[in-house]
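Reviewers of the previous submission asked for a worked example of the structure-prediction workflow described in the proposal, so we include one complete record here. The input consisted solely of the amino acid sequence. No template or homolog information was supplied to the procedure at any stage.
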Amino acid sequence: MTQADTPYRAGVSTGATHHRTLWEEGRTPGRLVANAAGLLVLLVVVIDLVAFRGMTVLFDVVFVLASVVAALAVRPKDFFVIGVFPPLLMLGTVVLVALTFRGFVADKGDGLLQAVVSGLAHHSGALVVGYALTLGILALRQVALRNAGAIRSTR
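From that input alone, the workflow returned the following structure tokens.
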């Protein structure tokens, strides 16, 4: 079938409505997304500290999930905010815990800097996975925005 045989010319709508794909859905301001993800992570830290007296794998899982959801929820204009968010969130969380309950992220006798480094080292796997997924999702969303919702170009 050639283009002349098709009932629609190139660029003419078929009348079907365009449904947003997963990659186009996010429309929430970056600041709001960052605040919500940060509060969720801090809530889990409090639960971890009260229930388990330390930051456990629960924190790691919620950190990765919060990073992924933030990357999917943010509006395209604020991709940068969420693109730098996971390392800053992890650093801020570990610093806060090291300042208040140093023994939960390091030895009680360690200094603040050593406690922060130790806390980051213990949760580096979650940081790497969360950050990689965040950047990957933002990259896929950028491609989809250029291709009208498709990950692959149909041209």
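The helical segments are 30-52, 57-73, 79-83, 85-100, 112-122, 124-146. We consider this example representative of the routine output the project will generate in years two and three.
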